[in-house]
C-alpha cells in the first residue's frame, strides 16, 4: 500500500515485513500481525508519508547482503556495460556516440569514435578481451589529423580528458605500447593550442592546419584540466615538453592574485595576461575539474607538487567557509555559485546546486584520506600562512575559522553532508534518479545569507557542546511527491525546486559514493549505489543501450536519444568498482582523471624529480 508513494526501489522491504511473521506460532503471529497492522495503519494516517521508516529498513537490510550477492550485482553492472558497448559497436562505431532510441549515431567529439577511446580502460578492467582487441583496431586506424564536425576544430578540454585520458589509462593498465604512441600522436596535433603568453590553451584547434579558435577569455575548467594527462605523458615518454605544458598552466594559476576571491579561482581568465577576471565562483560547470586537478596532480606526482597542494587548500577553505550552505527544511548541505561582482563582503549565492557539483564530496573525501590535513607540517605547509590577512583581507576570515578545526574532520563532514544531499536528490524522485540542477529554497529572506552558511551551523553546533549529529551529516528521509502533489504544486517537505529535471547518465554522485565507501567503509554508500543502478536499469535501458532522461519526476521517465561516452567511462566504471569485492585500483596507488581514467601514482627517483623541476619550495 505504501509502495505507491515510494519509488520502486524501496518497495521490496515492505513485502518482507509482511512475510516475517510466518515462522512464529500461529496464535502469537496473528496477535503480533494484528498489532503490526494497527501500528502500520496508524503510522500511515498520522505520520506524513515522507517520514516512514521503510526507507531506512530497506537500506539496513541491503547493507547485510553477502559478498556473493555483491559479486552478482557487479556482474549485472558488467552486463549493462556489455549491453551499452555492443549497442554502440553494432549501430554507431566508429562514430562518436550511439543514439540509443533511434539506433543512430552522432559525431559530436571529432568523429574519432569517442565511445571507443573513453571505454578502453573499463573494457580492460572488465576483462572483455574480444572487445578490447576490436577497440585497439579502431584506435590504430584513427587519423587524428582530421576532425569531423565543428568546422574541423577539436574542442581541447573534452579531447584531452576523454581521448588522451582514455589512451593513457588503457596504456597504464595494459602496457600496450601502441596506445602510448597514439596518445603522443594526439598530443602532437593538439599542441598548437598553447599559442598564448600565459601557456593556457585556447578553446579548440584544427588538427589538420594547426589553427586555433576561441575567445581571449578562457573558462577555468577548460584551461586547467590537463595537468594530470600531460605530466603522466611526460613521465612515460620521458619527454619533458609535455610536462612543461602542464607546468606553465599551474604556474600561471599560482601567480594569480586572488585577494578578492579568497584564494579560490574565478571562472574567467584572460589567456593573454594569465590573470583572473571578475568574481564568479563555482565548483560546478566551467570550474569543477580545475579544483579537482590541484589535489590529483599532487597525488599523481607522489606528493611532490607542493604548489598544487597549497592551491588546493586555499580553494577548499574558501568553498567550505563561503560556498556551502544549509537548507531550512531538512537541513541539507549544498554548495552553490556566487554570481556577484562585489566580493568585498560575501558573494551573493545563487542557491543553484548542480549534479556536476556532486563530484565535490568525493574530492574532499579523497583529500581527507590521502593528505595529512590534521598535521600539514608533515607536508611542509603552514596553514596559518596560506591565508594571511595582508594577502586576503576580508577573505582571510575563512582561514581563521578553519584553523580552529581538525581539517581532516571538517573536510570529511563537508564531504558526507554534501553526499547526503546528492543522494536525496535521487531518492526524492519517482524515477530514483537525480535531476541535473536544482535550486534550494531559502526561507531566510530577511536574514543575510551569511547566517545560514554551513560553517555557521557547524560553529553553532560546536558552541552548544557538539551534541547530536554534525549539521548536514545525518541521514534524512526522502520526500517523494505523488503525481498529484507535483502537478498541483501542493507537495510539502522538499527543500528545492528542479531547474533542470533531466538525468544525463552522469557519474558525479556515484563517483563520490565510491570514494566515500572506500574512505569511510560505510556500506550505505554502496547500498545507495546499487539502488541507483537498479533505477538506471529500470528507467534508462533501451533495446540498444541506455538513454538520458528528460525528466526524473516520472516513472517510467521520458527518454532522450543520447548515450554520452562518459556513461561507459565513468558511471558504469565507478559502479562496478564499488559493487565488486575487489579493489584493483587502491586510492593511494591510482589517481582517476576527471573522466574516471586511472593513472598510477609515480614511483620516481630524486633525479627524475629534479629533471621535472617540480617546485618544492
Ligand atoms: C591523415 O589525414 C591527413 C590529412 O588529410 C593526411 O595527410 C594523412 O595522410 C592521413 N594519414 C593517414 C595515415 O591516412
Ligand atoms: C587581456 O589582457 C591583455 C594584456 O594585459 C589586454 O591587452 C587585453 O585587453 C585583455 N583582454 C580582455 C578581453 O580583457
Ligand atoms: C582529526 O580527525 C581525524 C578524523 O576524525 C582523526 O583520525 C585524527 O586523529 C584527528 N587528528 C587530530 C590531530 O586530532
Automatic annotation (TrEMBL):
Its EC number is 3.2.1.-. SUPFAM superfamilies: Seven-hairpin glycosidases. Pathway: Protein modification; protein glycosylation. One of its GO terms (biological process) is ERAD pathway. It catalyses: N(4)-(alpha-D-Man-(1->2)-alpha-D-Man-(1->2)-alpha-D-Man-(1->3)-[alpha-D-Man-(1->3)-[alpha-D-Man-(1->2)-alpha-D-Man-(1->6)]-alpha-D-Man-(1->6)]-beta-D-Man-(1->4)-beta-D-GlcNAc-(1->4)-beta-D-GlcNAc)-L-asparaginyl-[protein] (N-glucan mannose isomer 8A1,2,3B1,3) + 3 H2O = N(4)-(alpha-D-Man-(1->3)-[alpha-D-Man-(1->3)-[alpha-D-Man-(1->6)]-alpha-D-Man-(1->6)]-beta-D-Man-(1->4)-beta-D-GlcNAc-(1->4)-beta-D-GlcNAc)-L-asparaginyl-[protein] (N-glucan mannose isomer 5A1,2) + 3 beta-D-mannose; N(4)-(alpha-D-Man-(1->2)-alpha-D-Man-(1->2)-alpha-D-Man-(1->3)-[alpha-D-Man-(1->2)-alpha-D-Man-(1->3)-[alpha-D-Man-(1->2)-alpha-D-Man-(1->6)]-alpha-D-Man-(1->6)]-beta-D-Man-(1->4)-beta-D-GlcNAc-(1->4)-beta-D-GlcNAc)-L-asparaginyl-[protein] (N-glucan mannose isomer 9A1,2,3B1,2,3) + 4 H2O = N(4)-(alpha-D-Man-(1->3)-[alpha-D-Man-(1->3)-[alpha-D-Man-(1->6)]-alpha-D-Man-(1->6)]-beta-D-Man-(1->4)-beta-D-GlcNAc-(1->4)-beta-D-GlcNAc)-L-asparaginyl-[protein] (N-glucan mannose isomer 5A1,2) + 4 beta-D-mannose. Gene3D superfamilies: 1.50.10.10. InterPro entries: 6hp_glycosidase-like_sf (IPR012341), Glyco_hydro_47 (IPR001382), Glycosyl_Hydrolase_47 (IPR050749), Seven-hairpin_glycosidases (IPR036026). One of its GO terms (molecular function) is mannosyl-oligosaccharide 1,2-alpha-mannosidase activity. Keywords: Calcium, Disulfide bond, Glycosidase, Hydrolase, Membrane, Metal-binding, Transmembrane, Transmembrane helix. One of its GO terms (cellular component) is membrane. It comes from the Eukaryota. The chain crosses the membrane at residues 26-47. Disulfide bonds join 358-422. Its cofactor is Ca(2+). Ca(2+) binds at residue 594. Belongs to the glycosyl hydrolase 47 family. PANTHER family: ENDOPLASMIC RETICULUM MANNOSYL-OLIGOSACCHARIDE 1,2-ALPHA-MANNOSIDASE, MANNOSYL-OLIGOSACCHARIDE ALPHA-1,2-MANNOSIDASE-RELATED. This is alpha-1,2-Mannosidase.
Amino acid at each position: 500500500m505504501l509502495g505507491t508513494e515510494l519509488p520502486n526501489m524501496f518497495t521490496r522491504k515492505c513485502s518482507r515485513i509482511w512475510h516475517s511473521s510466518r515462522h512464529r506460532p500461529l496464535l502469537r503471529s496473528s496477535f503480533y500481525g494484528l498489532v503490526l497492522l494497527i501500528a502500520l495503519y496508524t503510522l500511515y494516517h498520522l505520520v506524513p508519508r515522507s517520514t516512514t521508516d521503510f526507507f531506512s529498513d530497506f537500506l539496513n537490510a541491503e547493507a547485510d547482503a553477502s559478498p556473493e550477492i555483491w559479486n552478482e550485482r557487479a556482474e549485472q553492472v558488467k552486463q549493462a556495460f556489455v549491453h551499452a558497448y555492443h549497442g554502440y559497436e553494432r549501430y554507431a562505431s566508429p562514430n562518436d556516440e550511439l543514439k540509443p532510441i533511434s539506433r543512430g549515431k552522432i559525431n559530436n567529439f571529432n568523429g574519432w569514435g569517442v565511445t571507443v577511446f573513453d571505454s578502453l580502460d573499463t573494457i580492460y578492467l572488465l576483462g572483455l578481451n574480444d572487445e578490447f582487441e576490436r577497440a585497439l583496431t579502431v584506435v590504430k586506424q584513427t587519423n587524428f589529423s582530421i576532425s569531423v564536425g565543428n568546422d574541423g576544430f577539436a574542442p581541447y578540454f573534452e579531447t584531452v580528458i576523454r581521448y588522451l585520458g582514455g589512451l593513457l589509462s588503457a596504456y597504464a593498465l595494459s602496457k600496450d605500447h601502441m596506445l602510448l604512441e597514439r596518445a603522443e600522436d594526439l598530443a602532437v596535433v593538439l599542441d598548437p593550442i598553447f599559442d598564448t603568453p600565459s601557456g593556457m590553451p585556447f578553446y579548440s584547434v584544427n588538427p589538420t592546419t594547426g589553427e586555433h579558435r576561441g575567445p581571449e577569455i578562457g573558462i577555468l575548467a577548460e584551461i586547467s584540466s590537463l595537468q594530470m594527462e600531460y605530466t603522466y605523458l611526460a613521465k612515460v615518454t620521458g619527454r619533458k615538453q609535455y610536462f612543461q605544458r602542464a607546468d606553465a598552466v599551474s604556474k600561471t594559476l599560482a601567480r594569480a592574485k586572488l585577494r578578492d576571491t579568497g584564494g579560490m579561482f574565478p571562472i574567467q581568465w584572460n589567456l593573454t595576461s594569465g590573470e583572473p577576471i571578475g568574481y564568479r565562483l563555482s565548483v560546478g560547470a566551467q570550474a569543477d575539474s580545475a579544483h579537482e586537478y590541484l589535489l590529483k596532480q599532487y597525488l599523481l606526482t607522489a606528493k611532490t607538487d607542493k604548489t598544487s597542494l597549497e592551491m588546493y587548500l586555499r580553494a577548499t577553505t574558501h568553498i567550505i567557509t563561503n560556498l556551502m550552505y544549509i537548507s531550512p527544511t531538512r537541513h541539507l548541505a549544498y554548495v552553490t555559485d556566487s554570481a556577484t561582482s562585489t566580493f568585498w563582503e560575501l558573494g551573493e549565492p545563487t542557491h543553484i546546486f548542480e549534479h556536476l557539483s556532486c563530484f565535490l564530496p568525493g574530492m574532499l573525501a579523497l583529500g581527507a584520506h590521502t593528505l595529512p590535513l590534521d598535521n600539514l607540517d608533515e607536508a611542509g605547509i603552514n596553514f596559518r600562512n596560506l591565508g594571511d590577512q595582508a594577502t586576503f583581507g576580508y577573505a582571510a576570515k575563512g582561514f581563521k575559522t578553519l584553523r580552529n578545526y581538525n581539517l581532516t574532520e571538517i573536510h570529511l563532514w563537508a564531504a558526507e553532508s554534501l553526499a547526503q544531499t546528492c543522494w536525496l536528490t535521487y531518492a526524492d524522485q519517482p524515477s530514483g534518479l537525480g535531476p541535473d540542477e536544482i535550486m534550494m529554497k531559502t526561507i531566510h529572506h530577511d536574514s543575510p545569507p551569511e547566517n545560514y552558511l554551513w560553517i555557521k551551523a557547524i560553529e553553532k553546533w560546536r558552541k552548544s557542546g557538539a551534541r547530536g549529529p554534525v549539521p548536514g551529516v545525518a541521514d534524512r528521509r526522502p520526500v517523494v511527491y505523488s503525481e498529484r502533489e507535483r502537478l498541483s504544486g501542493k507537495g510539502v517537505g522538499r527543500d528545492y525546486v528542479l531547474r533542470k529535471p533531466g538525468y544525463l547518465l552522469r557519474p558525479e554522485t556515484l563517483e563520490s559514493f565510491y570514494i566515500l565507501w572506500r574512505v569511510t567503509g560505510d556500506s550505505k554508500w554502496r547500498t545507495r549505489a546499487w539502488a541507483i543502478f537498479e533505477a538506471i536499469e529500470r528507467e534508462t535501458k533501451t533495446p540498444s543501450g541506455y538513454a538520458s532522461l528528460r525528466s526524473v519526476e516520472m516513472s517510467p521517465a521520458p527518454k532522450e536519444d543520447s548515450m554520452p561516452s562518459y556513461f561507459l567511462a565513468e558511471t558504469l566504471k565507478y559502479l562496478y568498482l564499488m559493487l565488486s569485492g575487489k579493489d584493483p585500483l587502491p586510492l593511494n596507488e591510482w589517481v582517476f582523471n576527471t573522466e574516471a581514467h586511472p593513472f598510477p601514482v609515480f614511483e620516481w627517483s630524486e633525479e627524475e624529480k629534479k629533471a621535472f623541476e617540480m617546485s618544492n619550495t
